[in-house]
Specification:
This protein has a single domain, classed as NADH Oxidase (3-Layer(aba) Sandwich). Helix 2 crosses helix 6. The protein is globular. It is of the alpha+beta class. It has a four-stranded antiparallel sheet. The chain starts with a helix and ends in a 23-residue tail after the last strand.
Length: 189
């Protein structure tokens, strides 16, 4: 797949088919993610992989409950907060696979590096014909000590970005993008 075509065509998918993501596909995605650059070549990423629609539905309910119980005043004004309170709303959009990217603390910029790995993962999923969607609202729940313990994640790791993966239920239309805002362009002498 052409790189620029992938960048321009990749979309966040929020409707998935019943087709299963294979373990081989997940391994391919993780290998692609780890090709990202990192400060001082620390490669600070670690991954938690959860598979199965029922498992993800259970996690969604727990993550929503945590979100609603701890939402900040600014979030409480978000019109989607009421949506999250509905029992039938799934934070993970009915996907069958969730990959949580964790950062190992250390020198450099481990969280920033994990976002670079996330972009590789998103583009690789698109290249494999899979859909993906970052789910930042679930991040605080994946950082809870009891959730890390349940998943076997070391307590000092930091959840950076949960990403759902699945087979898209259909095409996702393009969303208009703004032109780049260039605040400074000093070219030449």
């Amino acid at each position: 797949m052409d790189l620029f075509k992938a960048i321009y065509q990749r979309r966040s998918v929020r409707h998935f088919s019943d087709a299963e993501v294979t373990a081989g596909m997940v391994h391919d995605l993780l290998r692609a993610a780890t090709q990202a650059p990192s400060a001082l070549n620390r490669q600070p990423w670690a991954f938690a992989v959860l598979h199965g629609r029922q498992r993800l539905a259970d996690c969604s309910q727990r993550a929503k409950a945590h979100l609603l119980a701890t939402c900040e005043a600014s979030l409480s004004q978000d019109p989607f907060v009421d949506t999250y309170a509905c029992a039938d709303v799934d934070l993970f959009h009915g996907a069958d696979t969730l990959i949580v990217i964790y950062a190992r603390p250390g020198r450099g910029a481990p969280v920033d590096d994990c976002f670079l790995a996330a972009e590789n993962l998103l583009l690789a999923a698109h290249g494999l014909g899979l859909g993906s969607c970052p789910v930042g609202f679930a991040r605080p729940w994946f950082n809870l000590p009891e959730v890390k313990a349940e998943l076997g994640v070391p307590s000092h790791y930091v959840a950076v970005l949960p990403v759902v993966i699945g087979h898209p239920a259909g095409p996702v239309p393009a969303v208009a993008r703004h032109d780049p805002e260039t605040v400074c362009w000093q070219w030449g002498e």
